[in-house]
Amino acid sequence: MARRRRIYEGKAKVLFEGPEPGTLVQYFKDDATAFNNKKTGVITGKGVLNNRISEYLMTRLAEIGVPTHFVRRLNMREQLVREVEIVPIEVVVRNVAAGSLSTRLGIPEGTPLPRSIVEYYLKSDELGDPLISEEHITAFGWAAPQDLDDILQLALRINDFLCGLFLGVGIRLVDFKLEFGRLYENDDMRIVLADEITPDNCRLWDIETNEKMDKDRFRRDLGKVAEAYQEVARRLGILPESGPRDMPGPKAMQ
Questions:
Q1: pTM value?
Q2: How do residues 163-195 score in pLDDT, each as one tens digit?
Q3: Helices 225-236, 46-63: crossing angle, 10 deg rounding
Q4: Domain 85-206 grouped into CATH 3.30.470.20
Q5: How far is it, in rounded angstroms, from Cα 30 to Cα 107?
Q6: Superfamily of segment(s) 6-84+225-236
């Protein structure tokens, strides 16, 4: 594929102009960040693993009727996605107390929640991604009430499916972050799952030992971060026999 114009670069991914109108190429980097970019590092091979893991999970979700922006994986670090208008809301689904929920509410980490809890955060690095309510979202026009209903229903459906999928390979889905986008096709608009689903934005614990298998290993200096990502891919049955291979990413054209 010819190298194309860079559209956007985030903490863990770069978006490039796609090969046809309405598409983008999503490139996964090895860069790692935490605490709103206050902690940075590089996890060799992370981008390769996240590309494969997100491809697998997006494909499995599509099989049960969840609409996504994913089209297909192009190579070890790139995938083709549909261009969407990102809803500026981060949707966090929590099944077990951990992270900021434990800190805010004084609930010991690892406590099972009475039911899955959905939280919304404004997607703003400058403001530190503040916690917001449904009232904020609809009042300020970040999403219409019907869009928010669709997002909530999709988030709960995704959570239900992924909890079962991960449980089947001995992993507890503690919590995870989702992003959604508006996909315009002719005169129609629908809400679809966007971004990625990987150990970068999920808390994944071993069901027997509670060992962390996600980016918390980087956040908390626990070590063996790449090995944890590899173990998630191995359990899902998608780690290449030769292990993750590095591949140079696309270069932006001036």
A1: 0.90
A2: 999 999 999 999 999 999 999 988 899 999 999
A3: 30
A4: yes
A5: 33
A6: Phosphorylase Kinase; domain 1 (3.30.200.20)
